[in-house]
């Protein structure tokens, strides 16, 4: 792939309608239709005039597709801009939303953010510009993710803030570095000299003999496969995500809140690189992180630059309400976190094209699955289900929807020309009563685009 100087391109026309997007995107689906869309033996004819199976409201598109001669930049950016319309609290990376305008001014904001518990035993501490995360571990110590700029930050921010939360700094069990820039690993040497943590983790491509600290575990930066990593008894997923730097590493962190497990998607790098080779790495890393978010069901996100995914706003909200005893703004839901990383990928594909005009990548289209009918018959143990699937532009035909209950009963149907799929779930336990049903649309690859997976859940009636 050739490398060229970046030329900033801006979207010439997104062609948004007056209808706006929300969390996944909140407008409507397309009407009617009762034809059986699937050859599956479980699919049945569900007549649109049946008083038991309503039709959805009329489908309202969020945008008009761009013309065939639109640039690759415009195609990807159209998706990104629709995705963050009314949902930019996690989906609008500064470098993507403001191309050519330089670095985020918040990078220069040294206002100290008081240590804040985000989940049970999981904290943020740092400044507006850059921070670090603290995870208490089963060994009675804690792991520090990133270390800010230097020894001064350790002395003036990290240590006193840990003490303010009742965390003994000397019990530092491990350090995990997201990447090798000085505002993330600048405090490692001071922390090692003071507290001698047993483990220090860093990406192999960002670690060298010139670093003033030693690493006990180097994540292989050439292998994007996720790996389980255990530090001081705390196990989480680490994955090489090069691009921002050659050794950037990202994580999926299991945490708890009020006794229930949640998972945090922790992107290790932020700003987009300048060269075509690194830009391609960044794109593939964004895709890999999206895959992990989807596979593991991450429902929260963080970044050491907490303004990048707007987690700083949620941190402030926790502070304003006096902690997380009553509610937790960090929990955003899996659909929203998936959308955030899908948008990151759209931005990355657009910016890669800025650096290499030969780089052609399929557009990723977020979809919406609407499970608008789930009607149980207690006599025969069946549940009639109907859903519609659409993207920003139109209903999706020829896709596959799996309907399933928590008990494991399921049926599968294809979407018709109006994006509608319907079938009958036959319960293995008759008379069990209405079940909670999930409809999940499977990712659908087309010649020039990928229709991303989506799901919806409702209580059957």
Describe the structure.
- The chain is of the alpha+beta class and 461 residues long.
- The chain has a domain at 88-339: 4-Layer Sandwich (Metallo-beta-lactamase, Chain A), CATH 3.60.15.
- 22% of the residues lie in helices and 27% in strands.
- It is built from nine helices and 22 strands.
- It has helices at residues 72-84, 88-91, 94-97, 151-164, 182-185, 188-195, 276-296, 311-320, 334-355, and strands spanning 112-119, 122-127, 131-136, 142-145, 172-176, 199-203, 217-219, 227-231, 234-240, 249-257, 260-266, 300-302, 363-365, 368-377, 382-390, 400-405, 410-414, 420-426, 436-441, 444-445, 449-451, 454-459.
- Strands 1-2-3-4-5-6-7 form a seven-stranded mixed β-sheet, sandwiched between helices.
- Strand 10 (249-257) and strand 11 (260-266) form a beta hairpin.
- The chain is globular.
- 48% of the residues are buried.
- The model is unreliable at 1-51 (pLDDT under 50).
Structural class: alpha+beta
Give the count of helical stretches: 9
Based on the structure given, which CATH architecture of one domain is correct? 4-Layer Sandwich
Q: Quick one: biggest sheet?
A: 7 strands, mixed
In round numbers, the mean pLDDT is 88
- The CATH class of one domain is identified as Alpha Beta
Shape: globular
Briefly note the CATH topology name of one domain. Metallo-beta-lactamase, Chain A
The oligomeric state of the chains shown is: single chain
Radius of gyration: 24 Å
Amount of helix: 10-25%
Give the low-confidence spans: 1-51
Strand order of the largest sheet: 1-2-3-4-5-6-7
Give the strand content. Answer: 25-35%
What's the β-strand tally?
Answer: 22
Termini Cα gap: 55 Å
Provide the CATH superfamily of one domain. Answer: Ribonuclease Z/Hydroxyacylglutathione hydrolase-like
């Amino acid at each position: 792939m050739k490398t060229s100087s970046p030329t900033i391109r801006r979207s010439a026309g997104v062609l948004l309608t007056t209808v706006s997007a929300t969390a996944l995107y909140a407008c409507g689906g397309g009407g009617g239709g009762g034809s059986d869309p699937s050859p599956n033996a479980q699919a049945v004819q569900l007549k649109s005039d049946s008083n038991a199976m309503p039709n959805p409201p009329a489908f309202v598109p969020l945008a008009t597709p761009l013309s065939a001669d639109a640039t690759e930049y415009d195609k990807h950016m159209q998706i990104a801009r629709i995705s963050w319309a009314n949902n930019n609290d996690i989906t609008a990376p500064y470098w993507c939303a403001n191309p050519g305008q330089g670095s985020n001014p918040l990078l220069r904001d040294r206002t100290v953010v008081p240590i804040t518990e985000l989940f049970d035993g999981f904290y943020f501490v740092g400044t507006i510009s850059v921070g670090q995360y603290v995870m208490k571990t089963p060994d009675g110590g804690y792991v520090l993710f990133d270390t800010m700029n230097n020894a001064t930050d350790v002395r003036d921010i990290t240590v006193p803030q840990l003490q303010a939360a009742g965390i003994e700094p000397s019990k530092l069990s491990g350090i995990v570095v997201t990447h090798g820039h000085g505002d993330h690993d600048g405090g490692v040497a001071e922390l090692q000299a003071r507290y001698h943590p047993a483990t220090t983790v860093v990406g192999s491509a960002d670690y060298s003999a010139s670093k003033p600290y030693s690493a006990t575990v180097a994540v292989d930066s050439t292998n994007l496969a996720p790996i389980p990593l255990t530090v001081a008894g705390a196990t989480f997923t680490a994955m090489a995500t090069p691009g921002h730097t050659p050794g950037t590493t990202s994580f999926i962190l299991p945490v708890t809140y009020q006794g229930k497990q949640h998972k945090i998607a922790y992107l290790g790098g932020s700003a987009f690189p300048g060269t075509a080779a690194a830009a391609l790495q960044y794109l593939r890393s964004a895709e890999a992180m999206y895959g992990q978010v989807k596979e593991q069901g991450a429902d929260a996100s963080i970044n050491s630059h907490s303004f990048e995914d707007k987690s700083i706003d949620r941190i402030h909200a926790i502070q304003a309400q006096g902690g997380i005893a009553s509610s937790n703004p960090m929990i955003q839901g899996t659909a929203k976190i998936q959308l955030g990383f899908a948008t990151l990928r759209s931005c990355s594909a657009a910016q890669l094209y800025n650096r290499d005009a030969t780089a052609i990548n399929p557009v990723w289209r977020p979809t919406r699955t609407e499970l608008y009918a789930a009607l149980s018959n207690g006599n025969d143990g069946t549940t009639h289900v109907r859903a519609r699937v659409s993207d920003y532009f139109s209903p999706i035909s020829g896709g596959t929807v799996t309907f399933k209950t928590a008990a494991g009963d399921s049926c599968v149907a294809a979407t018709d020309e109006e994006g509608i799929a319907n079938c009958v779930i036959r319960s293995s336990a008759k008379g069990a009563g209405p079940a909670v049903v999930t409809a999940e649309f499977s990712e659908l690859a087309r010649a020039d685009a990928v229709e991303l997976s989506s799901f919806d859940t409702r209580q059957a009636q």
